[in-house]
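seq as requested:
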Amino acid sequence: MYEQICYDTVKWDNSKEENNHSIIPYVPYPQFFRSEQQRYQIPYPDYSSEDERPLMKIASPKAHQNNHLSSSTTTNIQSNQKQELHRELAYRQKIGQLLPKKPELVSVFIRRQEQQKRKEKESERQRHKTKLEEALAKQRQKIDSVKLVLLFSPPSAPSSSDPCELCDQISEKFIQSYKKTARSNFGGGNSDWEEKKLKDYTKSETRLIEIMENSCTSTESKCTIFLEKYEEDIENWYNNNLTPLDEFFRWFCIDTAKVCCSDGTFGKNCRSCQYGDNHLICSGYGTCDGSGTRSGTGRCICDDLHSGTNCSNCKPGYTKTIDNDKNIICNDIDECKSTWFLSPCLLYECENDKGTYRCTGKPFYQKLSHLVTLLVLVTTALILMWKQLHTLVIVTCLITITLVVLFSKHIL
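struct tokens:
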């Protein structure tokens, strides 16, 4: 069949050849047969020389005159046969069962196969791109619906959510989903086939879409908006392996989104927090305001015992001591025993507490209430007995001062 296709040998009726009893030479196609040959397309390049053109048998002039009337019918049949043969040739060439004999035709065939492979890869890439665009369209549709809800909903209190905290949650879910989808679609069976397909899946856009969808839930509108804002950056990181997976938080939240800072820094420019003499943040006895975020003041918020700009001192009511490891120890002071003469509570009982003291019990004048009442009555009688006005004024002032001192509840 290959010789018949490549050289288009036309078979004539053997009975007519026997009747003519003549030797028929092979010559190139006449012009009127050549026009019939041009009615169909050859699936490979045309012949490059006159010798490579198809040949046919030319009968004697007498036989040619007898067959001239039926030439049109014969050429139509031959044309249909040639079209069927060329279709067969094209199909076999496509599936790789048949190759032309000429080297230049083989190179053309190989080049066409390579073009076909490139087209298939391009179509596959286009399908993945279309799928990604559909997923992004769904995300945008969700965002639009959330915006409409927020637009027509009643005003509420401003949200106090920290963008750094939101980015941290997204990073954590992204890493979990990245590890989960490493072999989610494969397991068991043919390991060679699985390994080959897994290489294509690990860097496919299908996996990236699945990871990003798992990074936010449908109810987290802020998460979806935040993730869409840096979608192209994440895709670039995914395709080019910009950083290891363990450093995704630093790359995404600190370097790219710039909503977080590293530990021990704060503010828009990620300035350093206060360090103590032991080279610890806030001497190890407090926290830095805004540490790890792009907000805050950087001021040390000390614990209950320490104070100072870097928490290196003790609060009032404690004494400071430093051990061999340069740790600051704050010891409580007993205020009830710290005075030599009078108790800090004066008329009350003193009880020591952590960093302070308390005054408890009843003052002595409440215990001697009858004596105080008698004293007031006697003093009043003496005042009434004296007739001098200035003496009355002086005694009245003394009694008033005495009563104020004795009955005051705020004496310390």
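The chain has a mean pLDDT of 71.
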